[in-house]
Design goal:
single chain; 410 residues; alpha/beta; Rossmann fold; VC0802-like; nine-stranded mixed sheet; seven-stranded mixed sheet; disordered C terminus
Length: 410
């Protein structure tokens, strides 16, 4: 979206039509024709339809708030989900953040949460349209100001806490959706080294980054918390100063209306601890646990064991219960099958299986290629195959998904 299109959407009559529009992708052509009959030019009609579509998609992140917000496609894709933003806000305000500098504020998700817990927020974004949209989205909050500026230009003496979300996509060709992610932290905007220096100038700071962050980049004495929400790993947040609750790596799992936190201090010192034979169930740890390197921390609380030292799959003889069960997805192992394509195909056909979901850890395969090579006949049931290793041996596990909390033992 360019400034002219945003200005068009913000015209009172155009915005009224946006609010009244009941969007459906299937009916988009008819809606466009209706908007033109109501006096909108082609560009304004296109902008209204784009915003209506984005609002509909944004309900997954913002719930009912989405109906009173504006978006860009990359801004929505990169925005913090509201429950995760609420977690950020709870940490920042509990640490005494009264004036929070939100640098790289995007469309305003975190600023919305900070203000909701009573903080004054000075939000800044380097992109003109994004800053204008953030100002619109936060217009009802009198404790929030929004500025169009680079993070490096902000006077940190104005705030007692810093929240920073560096731009991590290549914007050389503009802020288009689908821009490639940057792998060099010094190419972020602002750079990660600048972010670390800025954090040292305030009482407490949080830095939101992508979950693929190298553990070696986390400074000593900081907390690095990988976060998943409803099964999706959404970020790693680095916390410093008053906002750092416990230095080291941690994982926060937000699922089914509850949370589970796991810290690296819970990992056994012996890397060989908890490796054993395949049990009745296979457990797939939450992605935040895997990214944080905390798989071994699950063995004792879940009464499970690892199938191989480097493999992030667990196994056990019973289904786990309680809050710790949020850390895994469960699969009942039906059989161990041969790894070769021909014998595997024969085994699947014998079991009436014609469609397979393929998962892998520790196996050098391409799932789509394997699926094509199997050439399974149609008309059978579906199943899940795990290509992995048990100890040092390659194995293919045939398994059925089990819902934890509602499943009974067979």
């Amino acid at each position: 979206m360019d400034p002219q299109m945003l200005a068009a959407v913000l015209e009172p009559e155009v915005y009224r039509l946006l609010d009244e529009l009941e969007y459906s992708r299937a009916g988009e052509l008819a809606l466009a024709e209706r908007l033109r009959r109501q006096g909108l030019g082609p560009e304004a009609a296109t902008a209204v339809l784009a915003q209506a579509e984005l609002r509909q998609e944004a309900e997954a992140k913002f719930g009912p708030f989405a109906a009173d917000m504006l978006f860009t496609r990359p801004g929505l894709e990169q925005a913090t989900r509201l429950p995760v933003a609420a977690h950020h806000a709870a940490r920042m305000t509990a640490a005494g953040g009264q004036v929070i500098a939100d640098l790289g504020c995007g469309i305003g998700a975190d600023a919305l949460a900070f203000a909701g817990l009573g903080a004054s927020v000075e939000a800044v974004d380097a992109d003109e349209v994004t800053a204008a949209i953030a100002a619109f989205n936060l217009r009802h909050l009198d404790t929030v100001t929004v500025s169009h500026a680079r993070a490096e230009e902000y006077d940190l003496s104005r705030a007692d806490a810093l929240w920073l979300d560096p731009a991590r996509r290549d914007t050389a060709s503009g802020r288009a959706s689908g821009a490639s992610r940057l792998s060099d932290p010094e190419a972020f905007s602002p750079s990660l080294s600048w972010a670390f220096k800025a954090a040292a100038e305030v009482a407490g700071a949080g830095i939101k980054l992508g979950p693929a962050l190298d553990h070696g980049l986390v400074p000593h004495g900081w907390e690095a918390q990988w976060v998943s929400h409803d099964g999706d790993v959404v970020e790693v947040a680095l916390y410093h100063g008053a906002v750092c609750q416990r230095p080291g790596r941690s994982a926060l799992i937000m699922r089914d209306g509850g949370t589970l936190a796991v810290h690296e201090s819970e990992v056994p010192a012996d890397d060989e601890t908890g490796i054993g034979e395949l049990g009745a169930y296979l457990f797939e740890p939450d992605g935040a646990i895997v990214r944080a390197g905390l798989v071994r921390a699950l063995c004792a609380p879940l009464n499970v064991r690892r199938i191989s030292a480097p493999i992030a799959y667990l196994t056990g003889d019973a289904l786990p219960a309680g809050a710790a069960a949020r850390a895994v997805r469960a699969w009942r192992i039906a059989d161990v099958l041969p790894a070769g394509i021909k014998p595997l195909r024969r085994a699947l056909i014998e079991r009436g299986i014609s469609r397979v979901v393929i998962k892998k850890r520790g196996a050098d395969i391409a799932p789509d290629q394997v699926r094509r090579q199997l050439k399974l006949p149609k008309g059978g049931r579906s199943a899940t195959l795990f290509f992995t290793r048990i100890g040092e041996q390659h194995a293919v596990l045939l398994a059925d998904h089990v819902e934890l909390g509602s499943a009974a033992e067979p």
